[in-house]
Design brief:
The protein is an alpha+beta fold. The chain has a single domain, classed as Pnp Oxidase, Chain A (Roll), CATH 2.30.110.10. It contains 6 helices and 15 strands. Strands 8, 9, 10, 11, 12, 13, 14 and 15 form an 8-stranded antiparallel beta sheet that branches. A 7-stranded antiparallel beta sheet has the order 2-1-5-6-7-4-3. α1 packs across α6. It is globular and about 45 Å long. This is Pyridoxamine 5'-phosphate oxidase family protein. Pfam families: PNPOx_N (PF01243).
């Protein structure tokens, strides 16, 4: 897909939602290079979400974090990421392998509700990877809960390092509670040719329903009108979800398939595998200030 174009799945989703004209307007802001203002934004970020497929073709979303400067823009077609996933992360091999791989990313600043998506092809280097950009654009601030990184207190104990992964084919009772009380998750999808995208979903706690140990559902709130995620799902049902634990730095990664019910514009996700990564991120965050855009539940 060209930087300023939409694929047929996105066009179909836009038409189903009656948002074609709005999507056309937004599409004119898409670029394949990183402008100076975007480079400055990325250089100050501490959180990057990555969506990609593993070696078996399963979609996953994961997160990388660091001090400001761990994201750099050496030129207008490249973003350097100086971080590697948790040792047991399903995307570790994908992002650290020798081959170039398609990925989607979203850089988030929860404190100001700003986000930017950068999609393209990544190749590993000595510190992490370099992303060759193919699609760069900013998103609206809707549904982002305000949070700020919590600096370590003087003389405080060191932040615990990553613990071993916990893997399962279904959610535990505790994990289902994590899902049903979440106010944020991230979603990785790909089009019919396997080009990934990473997106954000937010709402008041309870906006994601845990229907069973292997099924989740959420309602799609009005967004920017591009319908990139739902457009991908029109072509390719494979999807990955990431639920961060903002207090502990843990990550809950889910992979499976998702389908849209256009009657009520909801998405049902059937998971096939879950991976919990304790202490995967070095950052801890404040309690949320919920977005005023969050719709009431029920």
């Amino acid at each position: 897909m060209a930087a300023t174009g939409y694929h047929s799945g996105e066009r179909a989703a836009q038409a189903l939602a009656g948002e074609t004209e709005r999507a056309d307007h937004l599409g004119r802001s898409f670029r394949d290079t990183v402008p100076a203002v975007a480079a400055e934004f990325l250089a100050q970020r501490q959180l990057l979400v990555v969506g990609a497929a593993d070696g078996a073709g399963r979609m996953w979303a994961t997160a990388l974090a660091g001090e400001p400067g761990f994201l750099g823009v050496p030129d207008e077609r490249s973003v350097r990421v100086a971080a590697a996933p948790h040792p047991d992360d399903p995307l570790r091999e994908t992002l650290r392998g020798r081959a170039a791989v398609p990925i989607g990313t979203i850089a988030l600043e929860p404190a100001t509700r700003r986000r930017m998506r950068v999609n393209g092809t990544a190749r590993a280097d000595e510190l992490g990877f370099v992303l060759h950009t193919e699609q760069v654009f900013a998103n609206c601030p809707k549904y982002i809960q305000k949070r700020r990184p919590v600096p370590a207190a003087p003389n405080s104990a060191p932040t615990p390092g990553p613990g071993p992964a916990r893997r399962a084919a279904a959610l535990t009772t505790v994990q289902r509670l994590t899902v049903s009380t979440a106010d944020t998750f991230f979603l990785a999808t790909a089009d019919g040719e396997g080009r990934p995208d990473a997106s954000h979903r937010g709402g008041n706690p309870g906006f994601v329903e845990s229907l069973s140990p292997t099924a989740l559902r959420w309602r799609e709130y009005p967004g920017n009108g591009a319908f990139m995620t739902l457009g991908n799902l029109e072509q390719n049902p494979r999807a990955g979800l990431l639920l961060p634990d903002w207090e502990s730095g843990g990550l809950l990664l889910l992979t499976g398939e998702a389908r849209t019910d256009w009657a009520d514009r909801s998405v049902t996700f059937e998971l096939t595998a879950a991976v919990e990564l304790p202490g995967a991120l070095p950052l801890r965050w404040t309690e949320p200030e919920y977005s005023p855009a969050n719709p009431p539940l029920g």
